[in-house]
Amino acid sequence: MKNARLLLLAFLGAITLNSCGEAKKENKEEADDASMPMQNEMHMEGEEHDMTAMSGNLDDGAQGEVEFKDQKMAAVYNHYMHIKTALVNTDAEEAKNGANMLSEALQNAGGNEQALNAVQKIAQAEDINGQRTAFQDLSAAMEQMLTGAISSGEVYKQFCPMAFEGKGAYWLSASKEVRNPYYGDKMLKCGSVKDTLK
């Protein structure tokens, strides 16, 4: 009887290991999806995601009030946030709309060549992956533009260490809560605040 139990436990253990191997294989195939900026996936410790409960706008962090010394810069910032929200929601069409609006706002604000080049790439990108790659350059340009332009409130510089095959990437947010534009719902809260622009 004791040997039968041990044999049954060994059999169940082998089935469990085999099914875990299949799940890992399926996860690897999913991670190779073209909509991801990198192939490996990370799960945050202590964090549970119930994707079935999420709907609508995933960029739902508490937004702080930010005011600018110049209304043209406020428009630039608002359109940048529009693109960020579209990327968090993995909405390529809305990211294109935001990029077209940001391009016009940048030209009205005197233009910034790095930002204009990046926003044109977002507007012309064939897929969300291309948009996310260009968004990295846009975020760097926006940081330079916003430094010294804020009259009240804070903008948070956030960083995802996993983006672009572990190279990492920054973005700007009006919320301390991380909502990752490089992964969307795949790793929504992957990242941390690295700096604050005031």
H and E string = HEHHHHEEHEE
* Tally of contiguous helical segments: 6
Residues in helices, as a percent range: 40-55%
Structural class: mainly alpha
- Beta-strand segment tally: 5
Task: Please state roughly what percent of the residues sit in beta strands, choosing from under 5%, 5-15%, 15-25%, 25-35%, 35-45% or over 45%.
Answer: 5-15%
Radius of gyration: 21 Å
Distance between the termini: 72 Å
Q: Mean pLDDT, as a whole number? A: 79
Strands in their spatial order, largest beta sheet: 4-3-5
**Which oligomeric state applies?**
single chain
Describe the protein:
With 198 residues, the chain is mainly alpha-helical. It is 51% helix and 11% strand. The chain has six helices and five strands. It has helices at 2-31, 71-88, 92-108, 113-124, 128-146, 163-166, and strands spanning 67-68, 150-152, 155-160, 169-173, 192-197. It has a three-stranded antiparallel β-sheet with strand order 4-3-5, with helices on one face. The protein has a two-stranded antiparallel sheet with strand order 1-2. The protein is globular and about 35 Å long. The termini are far apart.
